[in-house]
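hey can u run this one w/ adenosine monophosphate bound, need the structure tokens asap thx
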Amino acid sequence: MHATMMNYPLTTHHLIARAAKLFGEIEIVSQAPDRSLVRHTYTDLYARSRALAHGLLAAGLQKGDRVATLMWNHHAHMEVYFGVPLAGGVYHTLNLRLSPEDLAHIVADAGDRYLVIDDVLLPLLAKFGPTPPFERIFVVRWTDQALPPGLLDYEGLIGAGAPAQWQPPPAHENDPIAMCYTSGTTGRPKGVVYSHRATVLHCLASALPDSLDLSVQDTLCPVVPMFHVNAWGLPFTATMVGAKQVNPGPHLQPDALLDLWVKERVNVSAGVPTIWMGIKKLVEQDPGKWPLQPGLRMVVGGSAAPESMIAAMDELGMRVIHAWGMTETTPLGSVSRLQPLHAQLPAAEQLKIRAKQGVAPPYVDMRIVDDEGREVAWDGVKIGELQVRGPWVANGYHGGVDSQDKWTTDGWFRTGDVATIDAHGYMQLTDRTKDLVKSGGEWISSVALENALMGHPDIAEAAVIAVPHPKWSERPIAVVVAKDGKQIDEAALTAYLAARFEKWWLPDAYVVRDEIPRGATGKFLKRTLREQYAGWFEGWADGTPG
Ligand code: AMP
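ok here u go:
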């Protein structure tokens, strides 16, 4: 017997065509670099995405070709999200904050053919050296500056638009549509490739009331950059439900965000804790200044949302919704929301639950596993490595790199996070096995810093660890041992590292010790160090000694 249902493809094409049909007049607002607001609608988004697809095909794009982006959050970036897949291509969002070495590596690894870039970000092209490795570069122009020779105007690419009868080439739901790279503990970043199907199913699960609860009633401002896991998929999810979208452009400072939210009546936003700490501080300082939408919801992920922050935001009339995810999980992997079973709990207990990373949405399976690979009981106490699987969880990296130890033989993805899960399925992260530092939502490689430090003539040993920080969630500090007869000169080490790494990677402090604790196999006991220095920034209000 066969089911008698249609095999209708789950593609993002449907989302944008439907939005234009049903929500044609709903706005997509983008903040320009000069802070003026550019207004489009879903009708425009669809027409311009089609025009982009048409233009790219005319420019020679072949199915599966990669189109890189170096852009802030705005309408043209959304056009790439929908338009490149409409042409059969794959867009690849480049993280503006990466080092030239990582950018060069990932562009080569992805095989990017074209680039779309904001004119205000053109200086970043210098990161690629004298000849950027793209066949054509299209520039989204926000200013009057002349186009550098050889670069093309994005509006010229869109040109006269796609003819009304133009149909995109046939698409399969498992076709790739997007790429995003994630940091490796050692070695270079690795590419995750999203499909139509994964993206669409992720949208459906993200919009659910017990997930992010998005609807046509909402006005959403994703502060999370569109170069971080597709801004957590929000441009797609918001388009699916027809929510008004407000894009902050390059202005991510708390006062600029608050101004924008008031002006556009934003009632849902999303970003890393660092952003919310900044917002909290300003609103606390001057509670009446920004008349925000009552019950403004703030989705927080990327790093843990501290209980104290959730409580303070409640006081200020903002509701934090804590979520967990990864580049490899598209990213939504869990959300923490209270259930009827928590209704009778005292407020402090409810807060503890909201500060957990939460419950997996439908179709994401979670388990925690001990060192021997045995499943750990869901009792909220025992810890294990968090493993997940589901239709929007990656099952490998682009090019097949580094895959052996990241996926189990029975098909689960090893997250590198360590967690408990309670009897009701609420997951809480307790640690990480990945040797990385997450500062303001961006990864810093401890191993790369250590290797560089150990190459310095004054240093015998170095261990770089992540230490909790009130503003950045974590910052790196370096524990170092001097070579016999040498002195540690912090300023000299900072200058030495500054020649090799981006400024925001540099350790905030150097702790000089006689030795670094080691385990039985001779490896540094980083966990012990992390415990010893966990209070390093305690009492610092926002990164400055208090
Ligand atoms: P990325 O792939 O850059 O999105 O980073 C994913 C990683 O960020 C996860 O594996 C966690 O280590 C961390 N992470 C994401 N969300 C949270 C959260 N809510 N709380 C704590 N850590 C988080």
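The first strand starts at residue 27 and ends at 31. anyway lmk if its weird
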